[in-house]
Specification:
single chain, alpha+beta
């Protein structure tokens, strides 16, 4: 019985150790089970923030977003897709679009949650 309990504790501690650092706060989730987090430390404020997503399929991504808080628009500047959750594993894809076109924020969507996090600190 002690061995079984010990094994269970080891498995639980191993599965719970793979999480994002504390500087990431949950800002949204969608109907598919994907969870979106905002980084409140690195380059946060001044209309910019790093946004991480843990996908239901076991992958994750991080992107640097910029928002124009006065005209209700945003755009994605940089993006990296990882093979595992919590920004771990190998890089599957990445790109930089510093000159990508701005998009209008649509109410009641994930983009609105990201916009509100960047512009108003809502999470």
């Amino acid at each position: 019985m002690k061995k079984l309990l010990c094994l269970l504790l080891i498995l639980l501690s191993a599965s719970s150790s793979a999480t994002l650092p504390e500087k990431y706060v949950k800002i949204a989730s969608d109907y598919q089970g994907n969870i979106i987090y905002g980084n409140i430390d690195n380059d946060y404020g001044n209309g910019k923030a790093w946004i991480a997503t843990n996908y239901r399929n076991g992958k994750s991504s991080i992107g640097k977003y910029s928002a124009h808080c006065r005209n209700n628009t945003y755009f994605l500047m940089d993006y990296v897709l990882y093979s595992k959750r919590d920004l771990k594993g190998s890089v599957i894809n990445s790109y930089s679009r510093a000159l990508s076109p701005s998009k209008t924020v649509i109410p009641d969507t994930i983009s609105e949650a990201i916009y509100n996090f960047i512009c108003y600190g809502i999470y």
